[in-house]
Amino acid sequence: MKSYDVVGIGNAMVDVLTQCDDKFLDWMGIEKGIMQLVDRERGEMLYAAMKERTEAPGGSVGNTMAGLGNMGLRTAFIGRVKDDALGRFYAKSLEVEGTDFPNPPVASADHPTSRSMIFVTPDGERSMNTYLGAGADFGPDDLDEEVVKNSAYLFLEGYLFDKDQGKAAFRKAAAAAHAGGGKAGIALSDPFCVDRHRADFRRLVKDEMDYVIGNQHEWESLYQTDLDGALAQAREECGVVVCTRSGADVVILRGDERVEVPVHRVVPVDATGAGDQFAAGFLYGLATGQSLAVSGRMGCVAAAEVISHFGARPETDVKALFRDHDLI
Ligand SMILES: OC[C@H]1O[C@H](O)[C@H](O)[C@@H]1O
Q1: Considering only CA atoms, which of 246, 229, 160 is closest in space to residue 201?
Q2: In the chain, what are the domain boundaries?
Q3: Ligand 1: which residue has its CA nearest to atom 2?
Q4: pLDDT per residue as tens digits for the range 106-126
Q5: What is this structure's pTM?
Q6: For residues 111 and 323, what is the distance between their CA atoms, to the nearest angstrom?
Q7: Which residues have CB under 8 Å from 13's CB, separation 6+?
Q8: Contact assessment for residue 287 and residue 6, using Cβ atoms and an 8 Å cutoff
Q9: Which residues surround ligand 1 with Cβ inside 6 Å?
Q10: Domain 4-11+60-110+135-325 classified CATH 2.40.170.20?
Protein backbone atom coordinates (compact mmCIF):
# COMPACT_ATOMS: atom_id res chain seq x y z
CA MET A 1 0.00 0.00 0.00
CA LYS A 2 1.44 3.37 -1.04
CA SER A 3 1.65 6.27 1.43
CA TYR A 4 0.22 8.73 -1.08
CA ASP A 5 -2.43 8.77 -3.79
CA VAL A 6 -0.92 11.80 -5.55
CA VAL A 7 2.36 13.67 -5.10
CA GLY A 8 2.91 16.98 -6.88
CA ILE A 9 6.02 18.96 -7.71
CA GLY A 10 5.82 22.64 -8.59
CA ASN A 11 6.88 26.20 -7.90
CA ALA A 12 5.87 26.87 -4.29
CA MET A 13 4.44 30.35 -4.47
CA VAL A 14 2.54 32.76 -2.25
CA ASP A 15 -0.27 34.67 -3.99
CA VAL A 16 -0.94 38.31 -3.20
CA LEU A 17 -4.38 39.04 -4.60
CA THR A 18 -6.29 42.26 -5.10
CA GLN A 19 -9.17 43.63 -7.16
CA CYS A 20 -8.77 46.43 -9.68
CA ASP A 21 -10.31 47.72 -12.89
CA ASP A 22 -9.02 47.52 -16.46
CA LYS A 23 -7.80 51.15 -16.34
CA PHE A 24 -5.49 50.23 -13.47
CA LEU A 25 -4.02 47.36 -15.53
CA ASP A 26 -3.34 49.74 -18.44
CA TRP A 27 -1.87 52.34 -16.14
CA MET A 28 0.51 49.84 -14.56
CA GLY A 29 1.41 48.15 -17.88
CA ILE A 30 -0.02 44.80 -16.77
CA GLU A 31 -1.02 42.47 -19.59
CA LYS A 32 -4.49 41.14 -18.92
CA GLY A 33 -5.27 37.45 -18.44
CA ILE A 34 -1.78 35.95 -18.58
CA MET A 35 1.18 35.19 -16.31
CA GLN A 36 3.99 37.71 -16.73
CA LEU A 37 7.35 37.33 -15.04
CA VAL A 38 8.52 40.37 -13.09
CA ASP A 39 11.82 41.20 -11.44
CA ARG A 40 12.06 41.96 -7.75
CA GLU A 41 11.88 45.72 -8.19
CA ARG A 42 8.70 45.63 -10.30
CA GLY A 43 7.22 43.03 -7.96
CA GLU A 44 7.76 45.37 -5.01
CA MET A 45 6.29 48.29 -6.94
CA LEU A 46 3.15 46.29 -7.84
CA TYR A 47 2.86 45.05 -4.25
CA ALA A 48 2.99 48.62 -2.97
CA ALA A 49 0.36 49.71 -5.55
CA MET A 50 -2.19 47.18 -4.28
CA LYS A 51 -4.88 48.92 -2.20
CA GLU A 52 -6.16 45.91 -0.29
CA ARG A 53 -4.27 42.67 -0.41
CA THR A 54 -5.04 39.09 0.51
CA GLU A 55 -2.08 36.76 0.93
CA ALA A 56 -2.76 33.10 0.28
CA PRO A 57 -0.72 30.01 -0.53
CA GLY A 58 -0.77 29.40 -4.30
CA GLY A 59 1.40 27.84 -7.00
CA SER A 60 -0.38 25.89 -9.69
CA VAL A 61 0.37 22.31 -8.64
CA GLY A 62 0.37 23.34 -4.96
CA ASN A 63 -3.23 24.44 -5.53
CA THR A 64 -4.03 21.11 -7.20
CA MET A 65 -2.60 19.15 -4.28
CA ALA A 66 -4.54 21.28 -1.78
CA GLY A 67 -7.68 20.56 -3.84
CA LEU A 68 -7.01 16.81 -3.78
CA GLY A 69 -6.38 17.02 -0.03
CA ASN A 70 -9.77 18.74 0.33
CA MET A 71 -11.30 15.76 -1.51
CA GLY A 72 -9.78 13.36 1.00
CA LEU A 73 -6.90 11.87 -1.00
CA ARG A 74 -3.50 11.34 0.62
CA THR A 75 -1.28 14.00 -0.94
CA ALA A 76 2.15 15.59 -0.69
CA PHE A 77 3.54 18.66 -2.41
CA ILE A 78 7.27 18.86 -3.06
CA GLY A 79 8.45 22.43 -3.52
CA ARG A 80 11.20 24.80 -2.48
CA VAL A 81 10.65 27.77 -0.20
CA LYS A 82 13.20 29.95 1.58
CA ASP A 83 13.19 29.91 5.36
CA ASP A 84 11.53 33.35 5.48
CA ALA A 85 8.11 34.50 6.69
CA LEU A 86 6.33 33.70 3.40
CA GLY A 87 8.08 30.33 3.07
CA ARG A 88 7.12 29.23 6.57
CA PHE A 89 3.56 30.46 5.98
CA TYR A 90 3.41 28.42 2.77
CA ALA A 91 4.70 25.18 4.29
CA LYS A 92 2.41 25.44 7.28
CA SER A 93 -0.72 26.24 5.28
CA LEU A 94 -0.39 23.09 3.16
CA GLU A 95 0.03 20.92 6.23
CA VAL A 96 -3.04 22.56 7.80
CA GLU A 97 -5.03 21.80 4.63
CA GLY A 98 -4.05 18.13 4.89
CA THR A 99 -1.22 17.94 2.33
CA ASP A 100 2.28 16.93 3.45
CA PHE A 101 5.10 19.35 2.62
CA PRO A 102 8.18 17.14 3.01
CA ASN A 103 10.91 19.64 2.08
CA PRO A 104 11.82 21.96 4.98
CA PRO A 105 12.26 25.68 4.13
CA VAL A 106 15.82 26.31 2.90
CA ALA A 107 17.79 28.80 5.01
CA SER A 108 20.55 29.15 2.41
CA ALA A 109 18.27 29.83 -0.59
CA ASP A 110 19.67 32.61 -2.80
CA HIS A 111 16.26 34.20 -3.38
CA PRO A 112 13.23 34.87 -1.18
CA THR A 113 10.13 32.68 -1.45
CA SER A 114 8.38 33.01 -4.84
CA ARG A 115 5.30 35.23 -5.01
CA SER A 116 2.73 36.28 -7.55
CA MET A 117 0.92 39.62 -7.52
CA ILE A 118 -2.52 38.81 -8.93
CA PHE A 119 -4.95 41.49 -10.11
CA VAL A 120 -8.57 40.41 -10.54
CA THR A 121 -10.80 42.60 -12.73
CA PRO A 122 -14.63 42.86 -12.46
CA ASP A 123 -15.04 40.29 -15.27
CA GLY A 124 -13.27 37.72 -13.02
CA GLU A 125 -10.15 37.60 -15.21
CA ARG A 126 -6.86 37.31 -13.36
CA SER A 127 -3.57 38.87 -14.41
CA MET A 128 -0.58 37.32 -12.67
CA ASN A 129 2.76 39.02 -12.12
CA THR A 130 5.16 36.42 -10.86
CA TYR A 131 8.46 36.96 -9.14
CA LEU A 132 10.39 33.72 -9.51
CA GLY A 133 12.13 33.30 -6.20
CA ALA A 134 13.47 30.26 -4.36
CA GLY A 135 10.80 27.94 -5.77
CA ALA A 136 12.02 28.29 -9.34
CA ASP A 137 15.48 26.99 -8.34
CA PHE A 138 14.04 23.52 -7.63
CA GLY A 139 16.50 20.88 -8.78
CA PRO A 140 17.29 17.17 -8.48
CA ASP A 141 18.86 17.65 -5.03
CA ASP A 142 15.50 18.90 -3.72
CA LEU A 143 13.82 15.65 -4.67
CA ASP A 144 13.50 12.70 -2.31
CA GLU A 145 12.76 9.85 -4.73
CA GLU A 146 11.24 7.75 -1.95
CA VAL A 147 8.33 10.21 -1.61
CA VAL A 148 7.56 9.85 -5.31
CA LYS A 149 8.00 6.06 -5.33
CA ASN A 150 5.48 5.92 -2.55
CA SER A 151 2.71 7.52 -4.57
CA ALA A 152 0.28 6.06 -7.10
CA TYR A 153 0.36 9.27 -9.17
CA LEU A 154 2.95 12.00 -9.76
CA PHE A 155 1.86 15.41 -11.06
CA LEU A 156 4.41 17.92 -12.38
CA GLU A 157 4.09 21.66 -13.07
CA GLY A 158 5.26 22.83 -16.50
CA TYR A 159 6.38 26.21 -15.13
CA LEU A 160 9.32 24.47 -13.40
CA PHE A 161 10.51 23.19 -16.77
CA ASP A 162 11.85 26.69 -17.52
CA LYS A 163 15.28 25.92 -16.01
CA ASP A 164 17.76 23.12 -16.62
CA GLN A 165 17.73 21.96 -13.00
CA GLY A 166 13.92 21.76 -13.13
CA LYS A 167 14.12 19.57 -16.23
CA ALA A 168 16.65 17.29 -14.54
CA ALA A 169 14.44 17.05 -11.44
CA PHE A 170 11.43 16.09 -13.58
CA ARG A 171 13.34 13.29 -15.30
CA LYS A 172 14.48 11.98 -11.93
CA ALA A 173 10.91 12.22 -10.58
CA ALA A 174 9.34 10.47 -13.57
CA ALA A 175 11.90 7.65 -13.31
CA ALA A 176 11.14 7.29 -9.58
CA ALA A 177 7.38 7.23 -10.23
CA HIS A 178 7.76 4.46 -12.79
CA ALA A 179 10.24 2.53 -10.63
CA GLY A 180 7.59 2.52 -7.90
CA GLY A 181 4.92 1.33 -10.32
CA GLY A 182 3.15 4.71 -10.41
CA LYS A 183 1.96 6.98 -13.22
CA ALA A 184 3.53 10.32 -14.09
CA GLY A 185 1.82 13.34 -15.60
CA ILE A 186 2.29 17.05 -16.17
CA ALA A 187 0.30 20.25 -16.52
CA LEU A 188 1.77 22.15 -19.48
CA SER A 189 1.15 25.40 -17.49
CA ASP A 190 1.86 28.11 -20.03
CA PRO A 191 2.05 28.40 -23.85
CA PHE A 192 5.06 30.72 -23.65
CA CYS A 193 6.99 28.28 -21.45
CA VAL A 194 6.09 25.47 -23.89
CA ASP A 195 7.32 27.69 -26.72
CA ARG A 196 10.68 28.30 -25.01
CA HIS A 197 11.33 24.59 -24.40
CA ARG A 198 9.29 22.88 -27.13
CA ALA A 199 11.75 20.14 -28.01
CA ASP A 200 12.31 19.13 -24.38
CA PHE A 201 8.58 19.24 -23.60
CA ARG A 202 7.91 17.06 -26.64
CA ARG A 203 10.47 14.48 -25.47
CA LEU A 204 9.07 14.50 -21.94
CA VAL A 205 5.47 14.06 -23.10
CA LYS A 206 6.35 11.29 -25.55
CA ASP A 207 8.84 9.31 -23.49
CA GLU A 208 8.04 9.91 -19.86
CA MET A 209 4.46 11.08 -19.25
CA ASP A 210 1.42 8.82 -18.84
CA TYR A 211 -1.05 11.73 -18.81
CA VAL A 212 -0.82 15.37 -19.81
CA ILE A 213 -3.21 18.24 -19.04
CA GLY A 214 -3.09 21.43 -21.10
CA ASN A 215 -5.30 24.13 -22.51
CA GLN A 216 -5.88 24.76 -26.20
CA HIS A 217 -3.07 27.33 -26.51
CA GLU A 218 -0.57 25.04 -24.78
CA TRP A 219 -1.36 22.05 -26.99
CA GLU A 220 -1.18 24.22 -30.13
CA SER A 221 2.13 25.62 -28.98
CA LEU A 222 3.52 22.15 -28.26
CA TYR A 223 2.83 20.81 -31.76
CA GLN A 224 2.77 24.14 -33.64
CA THR A 225 -0.45 23.36 -35.41
CA ASP A 226 -4.20 23.78 -34.93
CA LEU A 227 -5.98 22.04 -32.07
CA ASP A 228 -7.24 19.02 -34.05
CA GLY A 229 -3.76 18.40 -35.46
CA ALA A 230 -2.14 18.87 -32.06
CA LEU A 231 -4.49 16.48 -30.27
CA ALA A 232 -4.13 13.87 -33.02
CA GLN A 233 -0.36 13.88 -32.47
CA ALA A 234 -0.70 13.96 -28.69
CA ARG A 235 -2.95 10.90 -28.72
CA GLU A 236 -0.23 8.98 -30.58
CA GLU A 237 2.44 9.97 -28.07
CA CYS A 238 0.80 9.98 -24.66
CA GLY A 239 -1.57 7.69 -22.74
CA VAL A 240 -4.18 10.19 -21.52
CA VAL A 241 -4.52 13.61 -23.14
CA VAL A 242 -6.68 16.31 -21.57
CA CYS A 243 -7.48 19.62 -23.24
CA THR A 244 -9.39 22.39 -21.46
CA ARG A 245 -10.80 25.15 -23.66
CA SER A 246 -11.70 28.13 -21.42
CA GLY A 247 -15.43 27.67 -21.05
CA ALA A 248 -15.92 25.30 -24.03
CA ASP A 249 -16.23 21.50 -23.73
CA VAL A 250 -13.18 19.69 -22.33
CA VAL A 251 -11.70 17.07 -24.67
CA ILE A 252 -10.16 13.91 -23.19
CA LEU A 253 -8.43 11.23 -25.28
CA ARG A 254 -7.08 7.80 -24.38
CA GLY A 255 -6.13 5.58 -27.30
CA ASP A 256 -9.26 5.33 -29.45
CA GLU A 257 -11.49 6.69 -26.70
CA ARG A 258 -12.64 10.31 -27.02
CA VAL A 259 -14.79 12.06 -24.43
CA GLU A 260 -16.16 15.59 -24.53
CA VAL A 261 -17.23 17.00 -21.20
CA PRO A 262 -19.71 19.90 -21.31
CA VAL A 263 -18.81 23.06 -19.43
CA HIS A 264 -21.50 25.44 -18.16
CA ARG A 265 -20.25 28.94 -18.83
CA VAL A 266 -20.59 31.39 -15.96
CA VAL A 267 -18.95 34.72 -15.27
CA PRO A 268 -16.25 33.95 -12.69
CA VAL A 269 -15.80 35.93 -9.50
CA ASP A 270 -12.09 35.14 -9.83
CA ALA A 271 -10.66 32.79 -12.45
CA THR A 272 -7.41 32.20 -10.49
CA GLY A 273 -6.82 28.48 -10.05
CA ALA A 274 -9.58 27.29 -12.42
CA GLY A 275 -7.17 25.03 -14.34
CA ASP A 276 -5.51 23.83 -11.12
CA GLN A 277 -8.83 22.75 -9.60
CA PHE A 278 -9.96 21.18 -12.88
CA ALA A 279 -6.77 19.10 -12.62
CA ALA A 280 -7.59 18.23 -8.98
CA GLY A 281 -11.07 16.99 -9.86
CA PHE A 282 -9.84 15.10 -12.89
CA LEU A 283 -7.00 13.47 -10.95
CA TYR A 284 -9.40 12.56 -8.16
CA GLY A 285 -11.43 10.66 -10.74
CA LEU A 286 -8.38 9.02 -12.30
CA ALA A 287 -6.88 8.01 -8.95
CA THR A 288 -10.16 6.53 -7.70
CA GLY A 289 -10.77 4.50 -10.86
CA GLN A 290 -13.57 6.57 -12.44
CA SER A 291 -14.25 6.67 -16.19
CA LEU A 292 -12.76 9.51 -18.24
CA ALA A 293 -16.22 11.09 -18.58
CA VAL A 294 -16.83 11.10 -14.81
CA SER A 295 -13.26 12.28 -14.10
CA GLY A 296 -13.74 15.15 -16.55
CA ARG A 297 -17.03 16.11 -14.92
CA MET A 298 -15.36 16.05 -11.51
CA GLY A 299 -12.76 18.44 -12.92
CA CYS A 300 -15.48 20.80 -14.11
CA VAL A 301 -17.30 20.71 -10.75
CA ALA A 302 -14.07 21.52 -8.87
CA ALA A 303 -13.20 24.33 -11.32
CA ALA A 304 -16.72 25.81 -11.02
CA GLU A 305 -16.36 25.88 -7.23
CA VAL A 306 -13.04 27.74 -7.25
CA ILE A 307 -14.12 30.43 -9.73
CA SER A 308 -17.19 31.19 -7.60
CA HIS A 309 -15.04 32.95 -4.97
CA PHE A 310 -11.82 34.89 -4.57
CA GLY A 311 -8.62 32.78 -4.38
CA ALA A 312 -7.14 29.68 -5.99
CA ARG A 313 -8.09 26.93 -3.52
CA PRO A 314 -11.47 25.39 -2.68
CA GLU A 315 -13.52 26.86 0.15
CA THR A 316 -16.21 24.18 0.28
CA ASP A 317 -16.31 20.40 0.56
CA VAL A 318 -15.81 19.49 -3.11
CA LYS A 319 -16.57 15.81 -2.48
CA ALA A 320 -20.01 16.87 -1.26
CA LEU A 321 -20.42 18.69 -4.59
CA PHE A 322 -19.49 15.44 -6.41
CA ARG A 323 -22.29 13.74 -4.44
CA ASP A 324 -24.74 16.52 -5.34
CA HIS A 325 -23.90 15.90 -9.01
CA ASP A 326 -24.33 12.11 -8.61
CA LEU A 327 -20.67 11.53 -9.47
CA ILE A 328 -19.96 9.41 -6.39
O1 LIG B 1 -2.82 28.76 -11.51
C2 LIG B 1 -2.91 29.79 -10.57
C3 LIG B 1 -1.64 29.87 -9.79
O4 LIG B 1 -0.59 30.15 -10.67
C5 LIG B 1 0.41 30.91 -10.03
O6 LIG B 1 1.45 30.06 -9.85
C7 LIG B 1 -0.22 31.47 -8.77
O8 LIG B 1 0.47 31.09 -7.64
C9 LIG B 1 -1.66 30.96 -8.77
O10 LIG B 1 -2.11 30.49 -7.52
Answers
A1: 160
A2: 4-11+60-110+135-325
A3: 273
A4: 999 999 999 999 999 999 999
A5: 0.96
A6: 44
A7: 58, 59, 62, 90, 113, 114, 115, 116, 130, 135
A8: yes
A9: 13, 15, 58-60, 63, 116, 128, 272-273, 275-276, 312
A10: no
